[in-house]
Design brief:
Length: about 280
């Protein structure tokens, strides 16, 4: 039956495409709508209130397009907006809709990747200052020590496609050093921003031996697959034609040029018009 409904995937900009890539590979049968709020990204340094307002507007827009389930494929939005949307907005305005984030599924498994029980978390200032990873990892792995490092220059470098150029080296090395100086036992680094997987080639080249780099794409895809198994009532609403649509609040041409770097294949976007 064609219900006209899709799974929504949201990010402040391009980064969520690294998660969407894993989701689309693992669960290719569903219809999806990706929305990047490129007109207002990066979100990393905005206040809680601003990230909440922006995220809510985008989530409600995805609901209007027929998405009963929306994944916030953005750590900053997951840290600053998810809980309020889940606890205050959905029960009152959208009792049949669901919104999921990327922090909890990541925290649920991160302890499996550290031998010395010491994890470094690299994220935006917003994600780091929210302390969300400290709290969530502690719930699942109380014995794991978590060190955090904000990397405010990384998203702008990546959004401007400067991340693999030599000019980016200084900031890649700087934040990595600042993290590793906090604890010599760090043996797993979680890239807690969906933009950061694009830095993996550079990070791998300078990372001390024995430290594992952990991205979130496959973790979130696995968790979504499990969620859908446990929620047949949501699955029943979603069309299975494998159609993927892309929307941006920013410049469509720029999005189409840049998005393939994150998604791994050519992308053609439509315009999303902001209200705020
Ligand atoms: N990709 C987003 C994240 O995972 C944030 C980037 C930003 O807008 O600052 O945190």
């Amino acid at each position: 039956m064609n219900t006209g409904q899709s799974i929504g995937v949201f990010d402040s900009g391009y980064g969520g495409l690294t998660v969407f890539k894993s989701i689309a590979k693992q669960l290719p049968q569903y219809n999806y709508i990706y929305l990047g709020d490129n007109a207002r990204s990066p979100y990393g340094d905005h206040s809680f209130e601003t990230v909440y307002q922006y995220t809510l507007e985008c989530v409600e827009w995805l609901f209007e397009q027929g998405c009963p389930l929306v994944i916030l494929a953005c750590n900053t939005a997951s840290a600053k907006a998810l809980r309020t949307i889940q606890q205050k907005v959905l029960p009152v305005k959208y009792p049949n809709h669901r919104v999921l984030g990327v922090i909890r599924p990541t925290a649920e498994v991160v302890g499996q990747y550290t031998r010395d029980k010491t994890v470094g978390v690299m994220g935006t200032r917003g994600t780091v200052n929210s302390l969300s990873y400290l709290m969530e990892i502690n719930k699942f792995f109380p014995e794991v020590k978590v060190l955090q490092q904000a990397c405010p220059m990384w998203v702008p470098l990546i959004e401007n496609n400067e991340h693999l150029n030599p000019g980016a080296d200084y900031f890649v090395q700087k934040y990595l050093d600042e993290l590793l100086e906090q604890d010599a036992d760090i043996d797993c680094i979680l890239l807690a921003c969906t933009h950061y997987p694009l830095l993996i080639p550079k990070l791998k080249a300078i990372l001390p031996v024995g430290i594992e780099l952990l991205g979130q794409g496959d973790i979130v895809a696995n968790s979504l697959e499990l969620y859908l198994k446990n929620h047949p009532e949501i699955v029943a609403k979603i069309d299975r034609e494998g159609i993927r649509k892309f929307f941006t609040s920013g410049d469509r041409q720029a999005f189409d040029q840049h998005a393939s770097i994150f998604f791994g294949e050519a992308v053609q976007s439509d315009q999303m018009h902001l209200k705020l």
